[in-house]
Design a protein that fits this description.
Length: 340
């Protein structure tokens, strides 16, 4: 591998890299950590607003560790992959109690925390602490698979091991944080999955995929698995005061710990109601998750006498204009029901 790879990439970054992202000013280990967790499987443009609101509410580890889980999940609502938020909160509490409130500054310490793997740890070390550490997120995997000509699905352990070796071999002797950001930027802006801009790439001259015309076949895609399908009925129950009945979902699984609508597998209300009119089925909403398509069938029941359902820790009436943090599809169903 030419020793100038890092030099070329850093020179490109100085002119074209993303250097004004909110988590870069200041670029502390805590802020890098929060941004990296949010950026997992989520685009930068989506994350920016969430990150800024999160920092306003939880400016440091102490504040985050002491917050109720519900507050953390509420600020995460709409960002998806809610296990990330639960792990983030759990990790903050571990840092507060076992690391004196300071993010660990070693790979071993970081990967011991919930939700932090080797690549996220490398980002925190390089961008937060200025240490020499490699990363291997989705963008970097694509860049290295093409540049090195590494075939095979990156999720396979042997392929991942080869990619890690390639990532570490390309590390510079200085500017470790900039190199990490440059590596991610290259994959996000030029070495994209479709239609990579090889003519503008600073490392294309020795790219194996370009020389062998394999830019569109590397990295090797994940073997396709058969997608599942799930159907649920979601009950939009309103009382005479136009309050909406919500239930807290189990702590694990899809939308774990978030408030949502009462749910059933059949067209039979899971809540005992009093003086309720006949339910009305609405237009189903199809929500795509990583492994299955979820068909959400709304069922409206308006004017229900609320005395039959009292507030509790996991079931609560909310005014329609003061709803808590909700999964985006659930908020959409409530808004559609409100307008009918």
């Amino acid at each position: 591998m030419p020793s100038s790879y890092a030099e070329r990439l850093l020179a490109w970054f100085d002119d074209h890299g993303r250097q004004d992202l909110p988590w870069q000013h200041p670029q502390t280990p805590y802020r890098v950590w929060i941004s990296e967790i949010m950026l997992q499987q989520t685009q930068v443009s989506v994350v920016i607003g969430y990150f800024q609101r999160f920092m306003e509410r939880f400016p440091d580890i102490k504040t985050l560790s002491e917050a109720p889980t519900e507050d953390v999940l509420s600020l995460w609502a709409g960002l998806g992959y809610y296990a990330r938020a639960r792990n983030l909160h759990s990790a903050a509490r571990v840092v507060a109690t076992e690391f004196g409130g300071q993010m660990p500054a070693t790979l071993e310490g970081l990967v011991s925390l919930p939700g932090i793997g080797r690549s996220t740890a490398g980002a925190i070390l390089s961008m937060g602490y200025g240490q020499r550490a490699a990363i291997l997120d989705g963008n970097v995997k694509r860049v290295l698979a093409r540049h090195e000509g590494i075939a095979g699905w990156p999720g396979q352990s042997a392929v991942a091991k080869t990619l890690w070796a390639a990532a570490e071999a390309r590390l510079p002797d200085q500017r470790f944080g900039d190199f990490t950001q440059a590596s991610m930027d290259l994959g996000a802006t030029l070495c994209t999955r479709h239609q990579p801009a090889c003519l503008h790439c600073p490392v294309s001259r020795d790219c194996s995929a370009r020389r062998t015309d394999r830019t569109l076949t590397l990295p090797t895609p994940k073997p396709k698995a058969r997608r599942g399908h799930r159907t649920s009925y979601l009950w939009l129950i309103r009382d005479p005061q136009n309050r909406v009945l919500l239930e807290r979902r189990p702590p694990t699984g899809v939308w774990g710990g978030l408030w949502s609508l009462p749910e059933s597998d059949a067209l039979e209300c899971p809540i005992r109601l009093v003086d309720s009119p006949a339910p009305t089925e609405g237009t189903p909403l199809h929500h795509e998750l990583s492994h299955f398509t979820w068909e959400l069938k709304p069922v409206s029941v308006h004017g229900t006498v609320s005395l039959a359902v009292q507030d509790s820790d996991n079931r609560r009436w909310y005014p329609a204009n003061a709803l808590p943090g909700l999964p985006a599809p659930i908020r959409r169903l409530i808004e559609l029901d409100q307008n009918t």
